[in-house]
Amino acid sequence: MLTIRHETRTDHPAVGELNFVAFGCRMDEANVAIFKRNLPSFDPDLSLVAVHDGRVVGHALFNPQTIRLMDQDVRVTNLAPVAVHPDFQKQGIGRQLIRAGHEIAREKGYLLDMLLGHTTYYPKLGYLVNAFGASSVTVNVGDIPANADADMVIAAPLPTDVPALVALWEHAEARVDFSVRPLDTILEWVSPNPMVSAFVYHREDHVVGYARLKGAWGERPASVICFIAADESAARGMAAHLARVSGLSTLDLPLHPYSSGAAAFGELPVANAWEAAMVIPYTEAGAELIEAYYRAGAIDQRATGRTMWGTAFDV
Q1: 218 burial class (0-12, 13-18, 19+ CB within 10 angstroms)?
Q2: What digits encode the pLDDT tens for the residues 65-98?
Q3: Is 162 in the same domain as 79?
Q4: Which residue in 91, 223, 233, 290 has its CB near the most CB atoms, within 10 A?
């Protein structure tokens, strides 16, 4: 007999092992679940397990978040990860976990769920594709003034920086649809991945920028995975610093056309929706909001939203 229930602390070892074997014996998804449990947003009611004869065979974690959508703050969940043990796959367990999570999230007042997932599986559950995606601008390092960061103080994030970093996000990113509002915790700003470096940029004792840089590894070059700038001048100074520490000849900066500093490099960033970026409304209000968002995009009134994922996904 299969039972769907809330995860408990005693389930944690089994859930970790389940996520490991369900994703080809890699630790990525297990680490995401572990990290999310330590965020202040974590809600144990939204971490569900499927139990068969006393054995945990499935897990779904719905992480509460607030996003900007159509110039509103919207309470949403983000489904990640969802896993079923290989011995129990293709039996509808994942579908049962997801539907149970949807019902709980709806009762708690969330409007939407968002995820990156399989484009043939999730639409069968009602998810809409091409909801958001990525946005970037490519910058030739030679075009950036070498001393653009000369008046900046650059340091690793500290807990005392968190209020200023949240305020920076509000200033720089709050017009970007599907932009995830960061939490008031240093865990949102310092990566658990030792390959990722985080930088806070100060000018005249004010925080004017934040970036995360993933270092080169094997065949993979370094990459900028988060870039929040107060204005165009700050964006150029940040780019000068990142070019120097990364050794890259070009930088792909994850700016959005609506980000502050978007026009710092002459060309506006280009935003593209991903088919795998999906959303499902929980409520009528959520459905109306999503319908308005898709309609505005279809007639080129609004650029596609993009999400810079939090540090949980750096693992």
Answers
A1: exposed
A2: 999 999 999 999 999 999 999 999 999 999 999 9
A3: no
A4: 290
Greatest Cα pair distance in the chain: 66
Confidence (pLDDT) at 86:
94
Percent of the chain surpassing pLDDT 70: 100
Q: Is 90 exceeded by the pLDDT of residue 289?
A: yes
Domain holding 280, by residue range, is 2-133+273-314
- Phi-psi sector, 194: left (phi>0), alpha (psi -120 to 50), beta: alpha
Q: What are the tens digits of pLDDT across the range 89-138?
A: 999 999 999 999 999 999 999 999 999 999 999 999 999 999 999 999 99
Reported residue count of the chain is 315
CATH number (domain holding residue 224)? 3.40.630.30
Partnered with residue 61 across adjacent β-strands are: 47
Same domain, 140 and 262: yes
Distance CA 315, CA 190 (A): 12
pLDDT, one tens digit per residue, over 255-271 is 999 999 999 999 999 99
pTM listed for this prediction: 0.93
Specify the number of domains making up the chain: 2
Cis status of the peptide bond prior to 182, with omega within 30 of 0 = no
For residues 75 and 172, state if they share a domain: no
* Same domain, residue pair 92 and 11: yes
